[in-house]
Every structure is written in structure tokens, then in C-alpha cells.
Write the C-alpha cells for this entry.
Amino acid sequence: MITIRQAVVRSLVVLLLVSTTIGICMRFPNAAENSESGMVLKLPGKDEVPGYLGFERPISKEEKKWLPEDTGLLKMLYIPKKSTASNEVEASEEGISVGLILSGNDRRSLHRPQVCLRAQGWRIAKKETATLSVAGQDMKVMDFTLLRKVSEEDGTIRNARAHYIYWWIGARRSTPSDFERILYTVLDNMFRNVNNRWGYPSVLVHVDLEGNKTPEEIASADEEARKRAFSFIQQFAPMFQKSLGATEAE
């Protein structure tokens, strides 16, 4: 049974929480109206990546359906100039798939990448943070090792392996952590009166599993795929990340 003293203490705690919330709202008003972006929607063109040809990829029906209209989205596929691919699937697996998503006023355009990857049939086998030197700065990115089964036209099933590299770009910082993105959003909103309009770059590269590879050979192919992705980021992140030198188009 709750005593009068306990009821008074609870009431005081609730009053303190309410007063604190009201005080914070009065001290840091209207942060949502002060939206800032640290990313621009710009990627290398057709002949700007050495050894590759670039092709802009269309926005899918699913993306149009689920993303708010004011979401910025740019996707490119870079295929090796010496590619021997005979179809789109093979070309994609030889190439480098790059995407930029920039949130609008509606934050539904932001979600953890696990959601889309699992919807595409990928299983995340490993997660690790990598530190890259980009434009003279150390920058952290998240590296997912992906696995899935692929059905071929002849009915056979083969294993596919890939690396998915991503990070979050805020108004004044970047982070590979989903949790840190949320934390920075709250802290910047409260204490800096800034509402981060987060950007989300991603780079997908497939691992060459052709032939009956040994574990050592798979590890070597893994590392080669990571190097391709990391090299792209080191060369071209300054094109779209403002903290690395990117500027808004005139």
C-alpha cells in the first residue's frame, strides 16, 4: 500500500522531470527549423573512376514507395572497362555499387542498413569498423561481410559474398555507429540548436568466389574486395562529404 509520504515523493519526482523538460525546451527552442547537411549528392561520372565506366542506376519502385519525396538519392554502378560480364548480374558483381541517401525533413528516409540488406536476402556474417585516411584525415567506416544464396538460370544454387561499407555524415561530423548518430542528433539538437540532416553513403563490392577456393584463397579475395571499396572511398569521399572538402553545386 502506498503511503502519503511515498505519494508525495513520487509527485515531486514527476514535477522535477516535467520542469526539467520544459526548461530544456525553453532553453533550446526550434532546433528542427535549423536543419544542416554535411553531404552533397555528387558522385564521379562516366569516365572519372580510373579503370571503370560509370552508369547511373534508376530509383526502384520500392525506393519510390518507401522513401519520402524530399529524400535525396543518387546511385551509380562502376564496371571495369575490361569486364567480360555477359549480363547485368555479372556486371554488378564485377563492379562497385555506390549509393548516397540524404534525408529530407521527414526522417523516415533514415534507417539502419540491416533492414534493406536482409530484405535483399543478405545475411550479415561479420561487422567491423575500419579507419581510413581520407584527405589527410582519419575517418571511420562500418564494414559488413555479407553472405547469401543465389539461384542461377539453370536451377543451380551458388554462394555469394560481398562487403558493404557505410557511414553516417552529419552537419559537422561523421560516424560509422547507428547509436552515435542518434546520440549526436539529440545532443546537437539540445545544445547546439542544430538538426542534423544526415547523409548516408554506401559502397558494395562482391568477393570473387569463382572456382573451388580454399579458405586461404577466400580470405585473399575478401581483402582484395575490401581494398577496392576502400580505395574508392579514399579517392572520392571528398567529392560528396563537406568535412573532407565537398561544396554545394553552384
Helices lie at 4-27, 61-66, 88-94, 113-119, 178-191, 215-240. Residues 1-33 form one domain.
